[in-house]
TrEMBL record, chain A:
Name used for this protein in its record: NEDD8-activating enzyme E1 regulatory subunit
Annotated ranges, domain THIF-type NAD/FAD binding fold: 19-553
Pathway: Protein modification; protein neddylation
Role played: Regulatory subunit of the dimeric UBA3-ULA1 E1 enzyme.
Keywords carried by this UniProt record: Ubl conjugation pathway
Gene3D superfamilies documented for this protein: NAD(P)-binding Rossmann-like Domain
TrEMBL record, chain B:
Organism: Penicilliopsis zonata CBS 506.65
Keyword Nucleotide-binding: yes
Quaternary state and interactors: Heterodimer.
Domain (Ubiquitin/SUMO-activating enzyme ubiquitin-like): residue spans on this chain: 444-523
GO biological process, one term: protein sumoylation
Protein name: Ubiquitin-activating enzyme E1-like
MF GO annotations: ATP binding; metal ion binding; SUMO activating enzyme activity; transferase activity
């Protein structure tokens, strides 16, 4: 997190101070991405039955609250509903005076109060109408939808978003249950995945470059060192030193299997001086602890191999996204050297500061050299497309090289619909097979969607959301769809679980509990932040929460 | 449709009524606290008391949504109440801008609540509330977050683990000599700037703050003596604060003279690279073109001349501030001081620049202000989303408690990734060896003018409760009695820091079948209230004689030395008999003991603590 602040932010430091605690999670680059984002919340789409029951949209407002606080650029709330008495009991961002007024306007006003840096607008026009203006949707980086929404509107919104590459989060929260799904663009690459620092160490001890080998060779005769020096040889150099000794008796190979590594570990351990009060040396302890994880020869992880093999990477076009251009250049680097560019970071270790810094410089300058090579390739590719491309910022190439081993590509899926998509059906069946699965809750919400759709499209003029006939019919229909291919997956017990889950939704007449919606708003906003900052790996693609069990589950549906 | 229609439908009428009739306490109005208050209000809780000692800071606004820019520096508890009340006028809200450890919040007060929620940011207060809730028999919902991770735990005396059933992480400490003479990492220089230089110049000096780990002092006696002299000389320079050459004097002292002296100690540098002193005049000359505003760039790693400029500038700012403060305080008040605060730019600039200058001297890698802030302030990343989830989980657990359904209440963990972001686990039974919850409890009334330690030890513990010879007593200030420590016996309990509503822990140290620890709550009898009683009443009386169970015979040895959170560094008041006689053979780890009883003014047996607030396994959101 040493990248400098974009100039727009350097002025008064109060903004950095306000966002200090989150900058430590996504740095200035993530914050800038947030501030450049506008979010659309479709918080209801008119009444869901013929009794004027409306989605109360608490989960939508709570999600937005968690995005306004960390400082997205702006938001728009689309909600044709007016504020009712029951809204006041469940929605914190409405007040006594809001009664009868536009809910979009009132929630927008109160949410804006949370953060003066965030701009907010609202509309009471239904989303389907707004979408007729083709300039409306492209203004947004993310779409949030509070379900249930009638099928036709959701389709319009999801299709348009997919075409524009805008991610969609579709959320339900009823009673003690909630669920949400994320629709990402067809290819959604994440460079800064923030893996666990433990797993990212790349010391290249088994594939050293000349300067590192040379540093290792300088540690020649450990026995001549005094106790202080002996106890302060950085463990990286210790390992290099003993590796050379090992190679002499092993035909130039490094220890490759568990047995050899264990032997090698004992060899290192035996080198420690124990005739001191501590009975050992910290740097040797560190070396011993690092043997198993640090001696593996470099191997390309499947996630990045997959990226290299994709057509987008193989066949660049003049308008290819910069991600693919860099990926292609890194692939060329890999084909040449059989390793990825070195990330260049060195963990803390027992050492004298001067030695540590000089070792650090060896890693840093190698990383810089690798970066230069990749940058050259990038420039050459850009050149081959003539003046059609503007150069990719060096910073972006650097971030890619630092994170290359942990890059992740998600292939976006649609918002899952059981009654339409056979692959969703089979993944739901799989999910049902897991013991104590929460999948029945997700199915129940799909039944709710179907109920709403029926009430809207064909229901009688008085049909209400607690209409038993409609519920029973849609429940049977969805269960029927799941059984059609293979009845075994939906036995009586599973059928009972699905029906029980629908009971919670029916009992509460699709009403929200503030506490569950607030919690779900936290979950949804967290995924929204990952998507907007393009940092951390987002949900792929459905999360289900059960408030009775205080447990959540992720499924790829 | 009415306001409560959604609630009644989802929760049912019985539970809704119980919620409405319940009275809950929310300790902490920070990140989790704001969310919790909102959720409790909209879940229909009838009466909510909220307490927080803190005031609102700019860095809170990215998640503590009840607060706005205009609320900065105001009380968190009071503003939270005022803002939230508007949204739910029917709920009874009570706010306290106070420390939960104040004596007014005693066990009886805790006992008036149905549930207590901990939304705290430090280990010490968490432990205190845990103990109070155990003593009062009130269920506690404990929670904490750090970055994307969070945790919620239900604690009920006798039924579940308590907060202290598992040992908590101990804060990192450094020996004095590493910090003062032989730093080798950036953190050593940062701690030096924050815990030595800044307090010596603007705060309470080292001798009074107990901020250093002196356990290795004996081995380094000569160097320690030198360091004391150095500190004294710095104190003398402090007198010239405000004069034109103040910065030069300070600089020359700590970055030149002291370094030259260190450099002269050749033994120290046989295998280490010796430090290179810095020269004021040279840097002054080189820094002519560097502007003060460099301090605004907290992402850049400053070079030495930039460090120099920020050092002078921040020293100036702090000097002026202290001068202003002094002018505003009258003679008889305590003299004002400045303390490090990670969000106070002046102290942060000073610590960052000083630490980097020292790093340059010792050839240690310099750090950016942004990174130094994190290292010095032990900053825990915090965002709204994690708090929202954690608070929601707290309320779900509270509903289980109100339904008397503890069997289905959970310990819940939030994680960034994984198949399930929210994982739960069944609550565990109390740890039979827990020094906090697996204890017997009793209440003792004392007459503060007459009651001596001896009265408690002899009359109550030996005669009434049947204790033998081997046991020890400790309270907030440390061990006040054990078989080797009899000097305190004639002292009054008041002299030993025993106050109304404070605790004394009795640890039975018999080898054979010892009793569980006994926790005594002290009540100071008010004479005026009970005029008749004083004549015959003994100075120390037990509320009632209770049966104290014996410790379970566990396979693991009883954790005698860590009892009551006592570490080897805990100060002991009074002089130990055996130690005085030179017998050091009974297996005790000998650490520095404190002979004086003046509370809080020992000679510093505590280690340097990076940020003692953050020692817990559950980390914090402030």
């Amino acid at each position: 997190m040493t990248d400098s602040f974009p100039s727009a932010l350097t002025g008064p430091s109060s903004k950095e101070r306000k966002y200090d605690r989150q900058l430590r999670l996504w740095a200035a680059s993530g914050q800038q991405a947030l501030e450049e984002s506008r979010v659309l919340l479709v918080n209801s789409d008119g009444p869901i039955d013929k009794q004027k029951t409306t989605v109360s949209g608490v989960v939508g407002v709570e999600t937005l609250k968690n995005l306004v606080l960390p400082g997205i650029g702006g938001f728009t709330i689309v909600d044709p509903a007016s504020v009712t008495e029951s809204d006041l009991g469940v929605n914190f961002f409405l007040e006594e005076q809001s009664l009868g007024k536009s809910r979009a306007e009132e929630t927008c006003r109160l949410l804006k109060e949370l953060n003066p840096d965030v701009e907010g607008t609202f509309s009471t026009t239904p989303i389907a109408e707004l979408l007729q203006d083709t300039k409306f949707l492209p203004a947004f980086r993310l779409v949030l939808v509070s379900g249930p929404v009638k099928c036709s509107s959701l389709d319009l919104l999801c299709n348009a978003s997919r075409e524009l590459g805008i991610p969609v989060l579709y959320t339900h929260s009823v009673g003690f249950y909630s669920t949400f799904s994320l629709q990402l663009p067809a290819e959604f690459p994440i460079v800064e995945t923030h893996p666990d620092p433990e797993t990212t160490q790349d010391l290249r001890l088994a594939n050293p470059w000349p300067e590192l080998l040379e540093a290792g060779a300088r540690v020649r005769d450990l026995d001549t060192l005094d106790d202080h020096q002996h106890g302060h040889v950085p463990y990286v150099l210790l390992l290099l030193h003993y590796l050379e000794q090992w190679k002499e008796t092993h035909e130039g190979n490094v220890p490759s299997n568990y047995k050899e590594k264990t032997e090698f570990r004992e060899m290192v351990r035996a080198g420690a001086r124990t005739n001191n009060p501590e009975g050992g040396e910290e740097n040797f302890d560190e070396a011993v602890a690092a043997v198993l994880k640090s001696l593996n020869p470099f191997s390309l992880r499947s996630n990045i191999r997959e990226v290299f093999e994709m057509e987008e990477c193989q066949k660049l076009r003049a308008d290819s996204a910069s991600f693919w251009v860099i990926a292609s250049a890194v692939n060329a680097f890999y084909q040449m050297h059989r390793v990825l560019p070195l990330p260049g970071s060195l963990p803390d270790m027992k050492a004298q500061s001067a030695d540590y810094i000089s070792l650090q410089n060896i890693y840093k300058s190698k990383a810089r050299k690798d970066l230069e090579e990749v940058t050259e390739t990038v420039r050459r590719i850009e050149g081959s497309f003539g003046a059609k491309r503007s150069p990719i910022p060096e910073k972006e190439i650097e971030v890619f090289c630092k994170n290359a081993a942990h890059i992740k590509l998600i292939r976006g899926r649609n918002i899952p619909r059981i009654d339409r998509d056979v692959t969703v059906q089979s993944s739901v069946r799989m999910a049902l097979g897991i013991p104590e699965s929460l999948a029945p809750i997700s199915i129940a919400f799909q039944i709710l969607d179907a109920v709403v759709d029926q009430l809207q499209e064909t229901g009688s003029t008085v049909a209400s959301i607690d209409d038993n006939e409609t519920w029973d019919k849609q429940t049977q229909r969805i269960i029927g769809v799941l059984k059609a291919e293979d009845p075994e997956y939906v036995d009586e017990e599973v059928e009972e679980q699905i029906k029980n889950a629908t009971q919670e939704l029916r009992r509460t007449k699709a009403g929200e509990l503030h506490n569950i919606s607030s919690l779900t708003g936290g979950l949804v906003a967290q995924e929204a932040l990952k998507v907007l900052t393009r940092q951390y790996v987002p949900l792929d693609n459905t999360c289900i929460f059960d408030g009775v069990k205080s447990r959540s589950e992720m499924h790829r549906l | 449709m009415t306001r409560e229609s959604y609630l009644k439908r989802s929760l049912g009428t019985t539970l809704s009524r119980r919620i409405k009739e319940s009275r809950v306490l929310l300790v902490g109005a920070g990140g989790i606290g704001c969310e919790l208050l909102k959720n409790l209000l909209l879940t229909g809780f009838g009466e909510i008391h909220i307490i927080d000692l803190d005031t609102i800071d700019l860095s809170n606004l990215n998640r503590q949504f009840l607060f706005r820019h205009e609320h900065i520096k105001k009380s968190k508890a009071l503003v939270a109440k005022e803002v939230a009340q508007k949204f739910q006028p029917s709920t009874k809200l009570e706010a306290y801008h106070a420390n939960i450890k104040d004596a007014q919040f005693n066990v009886d007060w805790f006992a008036t609540f149905d549930i207590v929620f901990n939304a705290l940011d430090n280990l010490d207060a968490r432990r205190h509330v845990n103990r109070m809730c155990l003593a009062a028999g009130v269920p506690l919902i404990e929670s904490g977050t750090t970055g994307f991770n969070g945790q919620v735990q239900v604690i009920k005396k006798g039924d579940t683990e308590c907060y202290d059933c598992n040992s908590k992480e101990v804060p990192t400490t450094f020996p004095v000599c590493t910090i003062r003479s032989t730093p080798s990492q950036p953190i050593h220089c940062i701690v030096w700037a924050k815990s030595y230089l800044l307090p010596e110049l603007f705060g309470t000096s080292e001798d009074e703050t107990q901020d250093f780990d002196h356990s290795e002092d004996a081995e380094n006696a000569a160097e320690i003596e030198n360091l004391r002299k150095e500190a004294q000389a710095l104190k003398d320079i402090r007198g010239s604060m405000g004069s034109e050459d103040f910065a030069e004097k300070v600089f020359n002292k700590v970055f030149m003279t002291d370094i030259e002296r260190l450099r002269g100690m050749e033994d120290m540098w046989k295998s280490r690279q010796p430090p290179e002193p810095l020269d004021f005049a040279t840097l002054q000359e080189q820094s002519g073109s560097v502007d003060n505003t460099i301090s605004l760039n907290d992402q850049k790693v400053w070079n030495v001349t930039e460090d120099f400029v920020v050092f002078k500038d921040s020293l100036n700012r702090l000097s002026r501030r202290l001068k202003d403060l002094k002018e505003k305080t009258s003679e008889k008040d305590v003299s004002p001081i400045l303390v490090f605060d990670k969000d106070d730019v002046d102290t942060l600039d000073f610590v960052a620049a000083s630490a980097n200058l020292r790093s340059a001297i010792f050839k240690i890698e310099p750090k950016s202000k942004f990174d130094i802030k994190q290292m010095a302030g032990n900053i825990i990343p915090a965002i709204a989303t994690t708090n929202a989830m954690t608070a929601g989980l707290c309320v779900l657990q509270a509903l289980k408690v109100l339904k008397d359904d503890l069997a289905n209440a959970k310990m819940v963990f939030l994680e960034r990734s994984g198949v399930r972001a929210i994982n739960s686990d069944s609550l565990k039974a109390p740890n039979p060896n827990c020094p906090v919850c697996s204890v017997a409890q009793g209440r003792v009334f004392i007459d503060p003018t007459r009651a001596t330690l001896n009265d408690l030890v002899r009359d109550v513990l030996r005669l009434q409760l049947g204790y033998g010879e081997e046991f020890s007593l400790s309270n907030e200030i440390g061990t006040i009695y054990d078989p080797d420590l009899e000097d305190n016996l004639p002292k009054t309990l008041s002299e030993l820091g025993v106050k109304d509503e404070s605790f004394i822990t009795v640890v039975d140290e018999e080898d054979e079948n010892p009793r569980v620890n006994l926790e005594l709550v002290i009540r100071v009898s008010q004479k005026l209230d009970e005029p008749a009683a004083t004549e015959e009443k003994k100075p120390v009386t037990l509320e009632r004689v209770m049966d104290i169970p014996r410790k379970p015979k566990a396979a693991t040895p009883p954790p005698t030395e860590q009892v009551n959170g006592t570490t080897a560094h805990e100060p002991v008041t009074g002089k130990r008999k055996r130690e005085a006689e030179g017998e050091l053979s009974n297996g005790y780890e000998r650490v520095k003991r404190v002979a004086s009883v003046a509370v809080g003014s020992g000679d510093g047996a505590d280690p340097i603590v990076l940020d003692e607030a953050d020692g817990g396994a559950i980390l914090i959101d402030d």
